[in-house]
Amino acid sequence: MINSNEITIKVNQQFPLTIKRLGINGEGVGYFKKKVVFVPGALPGEEVVVEVVKVHPKFSEAIVKKVRKRSPFRVKAPCPVYEQCGGCQLQHLQYDQQLNEKRDILIQALERHTRFALEDLDIRETIGMEDPWKYRNKSQFQLREMNGRIIAGLYSMNSHRLISVPECIVQHPATNKVNNVMKKIFEDFKVPIYNEKTKKGIVKTIVTRVGVQTGQVQVVIVTAGEKLPRKEVIAEEIKKRLPEVVSVMQNINPKQTSLVFGEKTLNITGKEFIDEKMNEFTYELSARAFFQLNPEQTVKLYDEVKKAAGLTGKEKIVDAYCGSGTIGLWLAEDAAEIRGMDIIPESIEDAKKNALKHGVTKAKYETGKAEDILPKWLKQGWHPDVVIVDPPRTGCDPKFLQTLLKIKPKKFIYVSCNPSTLAKDLQSISHMYEVKYIQPVDMFPQTAHVESISKLVLKK
């Protein structure tokens, strides 16, 4: 009898596969001779014939050669460059089923990284959008000149091949319009587009952001050097052709890097920032300021944080990894005091300005790490009732979680954009905190991203 562990899978090998579920990147997951096979584009419940393209020690990657049995939830992706672009992963899956699969991606992470009894855990249905298109308020399109024409778009999945995207259907229509007009302006005035191979040319990227509620648009022209030919003419043409653009900035990025922005930003014309509104709050967005890409769902996300915190007006709150203070300010009216910290000084300055602008006098912000600042506040006799955290994809710093366990706030609200790091972090504090529920929120329809809010309470 052959031991399945001795079965070797080879590149170009073809075999039938039943897809069991979606992986964290939106790919189909199946098992061949007990070995994991990832298949982009395949959906749960489908029976497919695949061809292996890469073999790794613990898994293989394959492509679909034939679909023998289709998922009832498979639909035709409406985007003409969907398969080449790679910016979205789930356009071929019916939207209500996307929401179910995102909840399942969260469950898979908890199965893999925790010892929780999942049947006893309250993992809620994913909160989706009524219209899951045209939601992204910001685009970052690379530019390239081909046969005398300028194309703007995104790099193809796992490659450096630029795919022209004249009309991205998950982008707000204003960003598509502005990108297309900017290309035309550059063509009309023969502005040199940067060429990565020859290292010649000037303009690398157009970054466009729209204030969805205000209609204001900002354009950032990212250049390889400080010199931008015909700068004044470009500014005049933008005013003429794009009256909605109230801010035109130039960012200088001379480095060969995957990072879009360099350190230096100059104002070409108009304001330095645009305004955006969410409920009663107004935010100033400068060229490099972080802001949620889907404001409509952000309101739902923050409202869920407020619900999880369950404030009575007496609580002291910590907004850890606070950025420009958006979450803490959302909760301020129902709290006794808000305190936040972040390691980026500019974010703390923004948080202070935002608090002042909205008349929130009970907010205090400090630059530094939560694991350094929280013990200091504790020594001063200040003890938080609720700690809220919205960390990067890497999850919480282990030192922060150790500090949390020492300080023991009654409630801990964890906003996550990565189910795997969330699961690991929840497991590491599970001896002292009970997970009351996890609420997934779909911030990025048509992609495999899953955001969630976990409510944890201190065990008695």
From TrEMBL:
Give the SUPFAM superfamilies listed for this entry.
Answer: Nucleic acid-binding proteins (SSF50249), S-adenosyl-L-methionine-dependent methyltransferases (SSF53335)
Give the residues the record marks as binding S-adenosyl-L-methionine.
Q292, Y321, D342, D390
Q: Which InterPro entries match?
A: MeTrfase_TrmA_AS (IPR030390), MeTrfase_TrmA_CS (IPR030391), NA-bd_OB-fold (IPR012340), SAM-dependent_MTases_sf (IPR029063), TRAM_dom (IPR002792), U5_MeTrfase_fam (IPR010280)
Q: Spell out the catalytic residues.
A: C417
Keyword flag Chloroplast: no
What the entry lists under Gene3D superfamilies is as follows: 2.40.50.1070, Nucleic acid-binding proteins, Vaccinia Virus protein VP39
Protein family according to the UniProt entry: Belongs to the class I-like SAM-binding methyltransferase superfamily. RNA M5U methyltransferase family.
What NCBIfam families has UniProt attached to this entry?
rumA
Protein name, entry field: 23S rRNA (Uracil-5-)-methyltransferase RumA
Source species of the chain: Lederbergia wuyishanensis
